[in-house]
Amino acid sequence: MGEGTPHTEAVYNRIKNMNLPNIIDMVKKTTVRQYMNLALGCDLIFTNDSGIVNIGAVFDKKILAIYSTVPKETRIDHYPSVIGLQVKSDCSPCYKLAHECKFKDKCLNTITVNEMFNKITEMVGR
């Protein structure tokens, strides 16, 4: 699981409550090399738009990635194993990564916990 929207923790908690045996939260707990080893054993990776997506895609892992400021198509068009959820807002996608958001990151609240959870359970079933 990666850091992403304000709802990420709520989604993680719902998934944990499913009592699936192999859910591991590795946020800020691994180096890139360690992550690469972990990714090999993953059935599904849930993360934000990050290098984690690229590494997981190289191993052809199922990935659900959250995209806010950058259009998901510019990042995952060549990764068939990646599903991207794009935030929905009149100001997103944007490319203002180096500036504070004058809209207080409202786009990050547009993907619901249910939307993320449903997509994850759908992907686990594939």
Helix/strand layout:
Blueprint lengths: L7 H9 L15 H9 L3 E5 L2 H8 L3 E6 L5 H4 L5 E5 L26 H12 L2
Parallel strand pairs: 1-2, 2-3
Helix pairs in contact: 1-5
Average pLDDT figure: 79
- Helical percentage: 25-40%
Helix vs. strand class: alpha/beta
Termini separation comes to 19 Å
State the order of secondary-structure elements, H for helix, E for strand.
Answer: HHEHEHEH
User: What topology, given as strand order, has the largest sheet?
Assistant: 1-2-3
Backbone CA Rg = 14 Å
Q: Could you give the count of β-strands? A: 3
Helical run tally: 5
Low-confidence stretches: 1-5
Quote the beta fraction: 5-15%
Q: How does the overall form come out from the CA principal axes?
A: globular
Main sheet properties: 3 strands, parallel
Structure explained in plain terms:
Helix 1 (8-16) packs across helix 5 (113-124). A 3-stranded parallel β-sheet has the order 1-2-3, with helices on both faces. The protein has 5 helices and 3 strands, in the order ααβαβαβα. With 126 residues, the protein is an alpha/beta fold. It has helices at residues 8-16, 32-40, 51-58, 73-76, 113-124; strands at 44-48, 62-67, 82-86. The model is unreliable at 1-5 (pLDDT under 50).
Short description:
The protein is 33% helix and 13% strand. With 126 residues, the protein is α/β, with parallel strands linked by helices.
